[in-house]
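Deliverable D5.2: sample structural annotation.
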Amino acid sequence: MRKFFRAALPLLAFFLSLQLAAQRGVEIGILGGASLYSGDLSPNEFGLYFKEIKPAFGAFGRFNLNSTIALRLGANLGTVTADDANHKREDRGLSFRSKITEFSLVGEINLFRLGAYEDRGIIPYVFGGVAVFKFNPETKFDGDYVELQPLGTEGQGLPGYEAPYNLTQVSIPLGVGLKFLVNETITIGLEFGGRKLFTDYLDDVSSTKVNYFDILEGNGELAAQLSNPTLVDPSPENSTYKRGGDFKDWYYITGISISFRLQGSGSGIGSGRGIGCPTF
């Protein structure tokens, strides 16, 4: 958490300076909720797997350009995980976890407002944008967690195989939400968003066809063992396999947020006073 708040401080400072310069509808807020994975280790492309829901936290600044459009700069921390044992796939025996740090810039479109008061009401919205996220898949081995990317469990780095995948990637956040305007200062939000990824290695598993003996000889015994944990007696007949399936990797962040409009930023959704900045 300490690392997260250090990363979020520049974000909040940016929006404070933006508010002073533009005098628009600027809000700062925090989010608490859950993160969830879907991909090669989930039984369906989209689903709710309660054993694999993990906490997520975030901080953001929202710049209301007008009553319809807003820009939001945010930082989120979450964890994604999956285990074949939770989905009756003991024949494959794969599992992973990964912490995610995400920085995003998204545009929000307010669809309409329910409520007669200027500074109160309910506003449904949709959002989309771009994000940069860092991840690092691990799996449990002999009672401890092992980082998977350096091992090359799918032959990464060997002749005839892909290069090692990058642990920093770009994604496209997409989602929907509701804003509850409590008063001229406070907005409560409820949001669900998914991330369209451009990597299939969030879980270190893809649909690439690999050979156990190639991995054993090129990347070592541990990489080969974690590539196919249920392969007891490897032979030329069973040494070539695909670890993953047809589902591309996604991660999701859903949560409840609370934001506060800053003083002097009255040209946003409402026109109330907002909250003031401390003076010294």
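Annotation notes: The domain at 2-153+162-202+247-261 is CATH 2.40.160.20 (Porin). The chain has three helices and twelve strands.
The annotation will be released with the project's public dataset once the embargo ends.
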